[in-house]
Write a structure and sequence with these properties.
- The protein is mostly helical.
- It has helices at residues 5-17, 23-42, 49-61, 72-83, 89-104, 110-120, 126-143, 150-164, 169-184, 191-199, 206-217, 236-250, 255-263, 267-305, 310-321, 329-346, 353-358, 368-377, 385-399, 406-422, 429-436, 444-460, 495-533.
- It is 67% helix and 0% strand.
- Helix 11 packs across helix 16, helix 18 (368-377) runs parallel beside helix 20 and helix 19 (385-399) packs antiparallel against helix 20.
- The longest helix has 39 residues, at 267-305.
């Protein structure tokens, strides 16, 4: 009987090459495993390295003897379900890795493992939770790689939705993380998944609510490096090299380049190669983050479009922050950002939102620029102008006046322009003429902001500007549409392009026919001349 890990690894390789020739050795190790299991159950909290080695060995070779290993996975599941809270963390991780290996080889159903894995999220073991989360996401993604397994998806989704309402905060948070990660990987992009993520915005746990809000804002934290803990006793150069290797794997840089930078050449050449490698990694990380942020913006916009009841969602979410002092200011800011984005995306009418945000529009207010963005996002052409006009007046009075700092005035004028772009009727000719006088301000930022406002109204309504600001080609007949005014269309927009395309294709066809006729005539003339020569 093998007595060490090296002997078990050697036997494992032999069994995989010749299962029939080593069946007796396998059965011997299996009996040894069952004996150790009975001894271990007497005191489950004790660490047993030999038992963990045997579990790992049997998980690798049990597929070679399926008839003799029918109950092996069930025994591991039962052991974890009954004793997961008191098991040693190394042994618990070894048992989970054995079950993952069996699942990856298709000998265990995903629906059988999920309840156990979500129960293990309650353990105070960060590495174990990270392992479980990565396996769950990758397993569901692989199950839908070749074709969508709707039956499996519906079963897993139902389970995740029930886990999202769990009283244990970590289980609810991890189920939400699985849903958002699968949406980001475009595995589950259906309407039902988005609305379940939206329901997490009303979870009683603040951390779960914040995670759901950040999903709709595209602010999920994504790191290139895997979460891990490094030893303080190690050499700094070794730690730096390991970080470079992890980053290289993340951004597709060859590990040979990392090896040359840290192990080849003299000290001076190593320093140059390390500096060059760091610059390359920094650029690759920047490009990767830009690509991911662009994809996240599109995904967030699509997610907001899939809400079943955006009006009810916005009103219910806004009620959590209205008149409530239980949330921190940062949490209130997240809630207001999501509400304003939903209002702007779906053109909703939440009229009591604008007076609430009006009291925060002050230059001395913390996160004033974010609050300005929230106010602008919530404006659209279906909001009554008399509702938005007090908001605009507050913005102008607090930000745009002679005693304000130049940067404050520039931000205020830019916000006024964006608000008028969405709701042009809120601007009056008198206020517009006062704001355009800042085009001669000594600060360049203020001048550019005022000129951008003039350029906007040259397109929307030149008649609201003074004569010298209208421009030479001003169309004085152009006016801003009245509130609720809709232009009636009597034809399909863009139909004339189809007619133009058909006309161009007919002209090209006639030109090609004329060219063919001319070529035929030239050919006949050449044939006639050859006959005369003969």
């Amino acid at each position: 009987m093998p007595a060490s890990l090296a002997d078990l690894k050697a036997l494992q390789g032999k069994i995989k090459r010749d299962p029939g020739g080593y069946k007796e050795e396998f059965l011997l190790q299996q009996r040894h495993y069952r004996a150790l299991l009975e001894i271990f159950l007497l005191k489950p909290s004790k660490d047993s390295e030999e038992f963990a080695d045997l579990v790992d060995f049997l998980s690798h070779v049990s597929g070679c003897y399926p008839e003799d290993s029918l109950t092996y996975a069930d025994e591991l599941i039962d052991l974890l379900e009954k004793n997961y809270a008191i098991l040693d963390h190394n042994l618990r991780r070894a048992l989970v890795q054995a079950l993952i290996l069996i699942r990856n080889r298709g000998r265990l159903a995903a629906t059988k493992l999920l309840p156990l894995f979500f129960r293990l999220f309650r353990c105070a073991d960060k590495k174990l939770r990270s392992l479980l989360f990565k396996h769950i996401v990758v397993d569901i993604q692989n199950s839908n790689k070749k074709h969508r397994d709707e039956r499996l998806n519906r079963t897993i989704q139902n389970f995740l939705y029930t886990q999202l309402q769990d009283d244990h905060e970590m289980c609810a948070k991890k189920s939400l993380a699985v849903l958002t990660e699968l949406y980001r990987r475009k595995v589950w992009v259906d309407q039902r998944s988005v609305n379940v993520i939206a329901s997490a915005c009303f979870h009683k746990s603040n951390s779960v609510m914040i995670a759901s809000l950040k999903f709709f804002l595209g602010q999920d934290e994504k790191e290139l490096n895997a979460d891990g803990e490094s030893d303080d006793d190690g050499d700094d150069n070794k730690v730096d090299r390991q970080a470079q290797i992890n980053n290289a794997a993340a951004v597709s840089i060859k590990k040979e380049d990392v090896y040359r930078a840290y192990a080849k050449g003299v000290a001076a050449s190593k320093k140059k190669k390390q500096a060059k490698l760091k610059r390359t990694l920094k650029k690759a990380k920047r490009d990767l983050s830009v690509a991911r942020s662009e994809g996240d913006k599109q995904a967030v916009f699509a997610a907001l479009q899939l809400l079943n009841d955006p009006q009810g969602f916005a009103e219910k979410l806004f009620a959590r922050v209205q008149g409530s002092s239980t949330h921190r200011f940062e949490t209130k800011l997240l809630i207001l950002s999501v509400v304003s984005r939903v209002i702007g995306t779906h053109n909703l009418l939440v009229l009591h939102f604008y007076p609430f945000i009006q009291k925060y529009l002050q230059p001395s207010q913390r996160e004033a620029t974010k609050l300005l963005a929230i106010a602008v996002q919530a404006c659209h052409d279906q909001v009554p102008p008399d509702v938005v006009e007090p908001l605009l007046r507050q913005l102008v009075n607090q930000f745009v006046h002679d005693k304000s700092r130049p940067e404050v005035m520039a931000v205020g004028l830019q916000s006024v322009r964006e608000m008028c772009l969405r709701t042009p009727l809120v601007m009056t000719p008198e206020l517009l003429q006062d704001l355009t006088e800042y085009k001669k301000d000594r600060d360049k930022g203020v001048r550019m902001a005022a000129r951008s406002l003039i350029t906007l109204f040259r397109e929307l309504a030149p008649g609201m500007l003074v004569k010298k600001d209208r421009g030479k080609a001003a169309d004085m007949d152009r006016q801003v549409k009245q509130y609720g005014q809709v232009e009636k269309t009597t034809r399909v927009l863009g139909a004339e392009l189809l007619l133009l395309k058909d006309r161009n294709s007919d002209d090209e066809l006639s030109d090609s026919e004329d060219e063919d006729d001319s070529e035929d005539e030239e050919g006949e003339e050449e044939d006639g001349s050859e006959i005369e020569m003969e």
